[in-house]
Design a protein that fits this description.
By secondary structure, the chain is α+β, with helices and mostly antiparallel strands. Helices cover 49% and strands 18% of the residues.
Length: 556
């Protein structure tokens, strides 16, 4: 009596089910191959039978056209059901076993046809080749169905073409000959199938050993767990084969790279386009924690080669961290500026106290008005020219930071920007990065350090210019400054530099615009960003400079 437990019997029976399934699939493949081989054998046989039928039709047509009486009757008689041409054509059709014998004139009008009601009408297929003097063999559909056809020109005694002869062989007769040959072919296919079944049995046994008796459900579960793990993690995963094509792209990678599942199977450059991201993922740029920008996102990439010549790359989103770092830098700058203003405010209070103690009340009132008015004028000068509150607030804050760093931040009198921006936050990012870059390049470089900002609206296009009196950008580095990771400054405590100008260009290009750098007239750098379609409607608002020969700059 057997004492095997149900679980033991299940493990014993499971390989049999897998074996049976694999065997069934292999037999199905062998059957498919046998059917395919039979079809490959039948295809040329069918073509051969078709060719024989067409040649027979052509021979009947040539024999008919060789009778000079038919050409003469075609010229002297009318296309009628009891005419001499119809009578001769029917005699030839019955004698040859053809489906039809049609004789036509140069206009394609029938003088004969199996269906007498069609005599006198134009043929249904194009007779131009035969009327041009060429013999035609074809398989085609006509008024009598599908048939093998032969068409030849009809010539008179002088050799001139007066019409054409078209003969059709019924296609069913060709098909019947083909069907008659099939049973013998199936006998050979059955023998091949038996050999294939034996080979399938041997292969299935080998598969059974290599899969270690795992059921298909177990294998499917492992794959499902792998897919769930890849698509559930919060890091982007990109797998490449040895030729650089994408073979795996999880959900997070699709989000970070702004692509969809259709990118799988494509080369990297075709899926992502040329750029640093493509170079990093392809391994053209080596290193760890490589910085790259994809659209509005700052990414950290790492790449690991695989044994098959491919690679697996991981991506981490650093956009929010980078934004927080920049906000931290800005906050530190504001704190320093506020600390300086606190000292300045204390000095003002001491001065005011002294004036009051000296009973110089008028001078004290005038002093308070000057101090309060200076800050109010700064804000008013900016808000009069820049109507967007985000941009205005940004420049007011930057003016305070610039003053603390010993740099005069100026807004050109040519500046005029209405409050109808499509993407004000994007423009704030662009202006903030350019002004920060200019302040870094200018602070401490000259005794009269100055940064000038120009914002203009030209129709629906926004044009931003930031000039400084710093050392400028050499001509051979004017494209490099817009690359991710390129910087001449020491990295801050929160991470790497080389992101600001890269984001400026990416944001500009995302809106169909441009970002360039040239030499400023003052000797420093001049950054120009052009943003088409930056406003919600067409605008012509623009403040002209007071002097046609020069632009005035108001220091704030």
């Amino acid at each position: 009596m057997s004492t095997a437990s149900p679980a033991r019997r299940l493990r014993f029976g499971l390989p049999r089910r897998v074996f049976a399934q694999v065997l069934l699939m292999q037999v199905a493949i062998a059957a498919g191959v046998a059917v395919l081989a039979t079809g490959l054998f039948l295809a040329p046989l069918s073509d051969q039978l078709d060719d024989q039928a067409m040649r027979r039709a052509l021979a009947i047509a040539q024999t008919t056209a060789a009778q000079p009486r038919i050409a003469e009757d075609l010229r002297t008689s009318l296309p009628t059901a009891d005419g001499p041409v119809q009578a001769e054509a029917e005699r030839i059709r019955r004698a040859s076993g053809a489906e039809y014998v049609v004789i036509m004139n140069m206009h394609g009008v029938r003088w004969s046809h199996t269906d007498r009601s069609r005599i006198g009408k134009v043929v249904s297929t194009d007779p131009s080749d035969a009327l041009a003097g060429r013999d035609v063999m074809e398989i085609d559909d006509g008024t009598l169905g599908r048939s093998a056809r032969g068409k030849v020109p009809l010539r008179n005694a002088d050799g001139a073409i007066v019409g054409a002869v078209s003969v059709g062989i019924e296609y069913d007769s060709v098909r019947a000959r083909l069907i008659h040959a099939i049973p013998g072919l199936f006998a050979y296919a059955g023998g091949a199938l038996a050999v294939g079944a034996l080979a399938a049995y041997l292969i299935s046994r080998r598969v059974q050993r290599q899969t270690r008796d795992l059921a298909f459900s177990d294998i499917a579960a492992l794959l499902a767990e792998r897919e769930a793990m890849l698509h559930g993690i919060r890091e982007g995963v990109v797998a490449l084969d040895r030729s650089g094509r994408i073979r795996l792209l999880n959900d997070e990678a699709q989000r970070l790279l702004a692509v969809d599942g259709a990118a799988i199977g494509l080369p990297l450059e075709a899926a992502l386009g040329p750029g640093r991201t493509t170079d990093v993922l392809a391994g053209h740029v080596t290193g760890t924690d490589l910085l790259t920008v994809r659209g509005p996102r700052v990414l950290i990439a790492n790449r690991m080669p695989t044994d098959d010549g491919g690679a697996v790359a991981t991506l981490r989103d650093r956009t929010e961290l980078e934004q927080l770092g920049r906000e931290l830098d800005s906050t530190r700058g504001l704190i320093d500026a506020l600390r300086a203003q606190d000292h300045e405010h204390a000095n003002h209070m001491h001065t005011l106290l002294g004036l009051l103690e000296l009973e110089m009340y008028e001078e004290a009132a005038e002093f308070v008005g000057e101090v309060a008015g200076a800050h109010r004028v700064t804000a008013e000068q900016i808000t009069e020219k820049i109507k967007d509150p985000l941009l205005a607030a940004l420049l007011v804050g930057k003016a305070t930071v610039a003053a603390e760093r010993g740099v005069a931040l100026g807004v050109s009198s040519d500046t005029a920007l209405p409050d109808r921006l499509v993407d004000p936050r994007g423009l704030v990012t662009i202006v903030g990065n350019l002004v920060d870059n200019a302040l870094d390049a200018t602070a401490g470089s000259t005794r009269h350090a100055r940064v000038e900002v120009v914002l203009r609206a030209e129709g629906r296009t926004a044009v931003l210019t930031v000039r400084d009196t710093g050392p400028g950008v050499p001509a051979d580095r004017r494209e490099s400054v817009f690359m991710e990771g390129w910087s001449t400054k020491e990295p801050p405590s929160h991470g790497k530099r080389g992101i600001g100008l890269a984001l400026v260009r990416r944001l500009a290009e995302r809106q169909g615009g441009t970002a360039t750098v040239t030499d400023a007239a003052s000797g420093g750098a001049e950054f120009v960003v052009v943003l088409p379609e930056a406003f919600t409607d067409s605008l012509t608002l623009r403040t002209e400079p007071q002097d046609a020969g020069a632009h005035e700059t108001e220091e704030v």
